[in-house]
């Protein structure tokens, strides 16, 4: 899979791409990550990529020209799924992440300032994505979240695909609690059932705990699964 990230802060994205799972995935040649500085595509002699909004209002708006030209040049003759990171977008979910794994080429445009000229959303991108109901300084963090979430689902990236089976959101609920050695840490003990060796009891306990945590922290997931 190939990711092309278009941003005005390329070093931020490159730093994330050179660590942890993303770094290992590139080393294994499971993904290719290219980071593009949007200012390299602007026609403005001062390298501006934004301007004042029509109709007045606060802030600056990212313009069409550099974004359209960047996507055209990066895409070339390849088919690519183009994403704009934006608070107005559909919320990124695990289900949506799984759908993204079907694309061989993904281009992500990192929004910034007051927003992006609406013509980018109307005529250029395939979907607009948000990572939550809050506003960030720019779209770089959401772009990195999308990259990370999609990459770890690519076969061979994690090494042990079975580790994905019982993760949060995989069965319409959150994950169960995890413990490791020591069994007794300063008087705080691991639940006895996990030390019993009885796998049926362990699985039942984990299921019960997962449902309790989901009911407490994300009851909407249980409603959605009905």
Written overview of the protein:
The chain is α/β, with parallel strands linked by helices and 226 residues long. It folds into two domains: 2-151, Alpha/beta knot, CATH 3.40.1280; 166-224, Orthogonal Bundle (Trp Operon Repressor, Chain A), CATH 1.10.1270.20. The protein is 35% helix and 19% strand. The protein has helices spanning 10-17, 20-27, 64-75, 94-100, 118-123, 140-151, 199-217, 219-224, and strands at residues 2-7, 32-37, 50-51, 61-62, 81-91, 105-110, 115-116, 127-130, 184-185, 188-189. It has a five-stranded parallel beta sheet, with helices on both faces. A three-stranded mixed beta sheet has the order 3-4-7.
Radius of gyration (CA) equals: 21 Å
CATH class of the largest domain equals: Alpha Beta
- Shape descriptor reads elongated
Count, helices? 8
String of helices and strands: EHHEEEHEHEEHEHEEHH
Low-confidence stretches: none
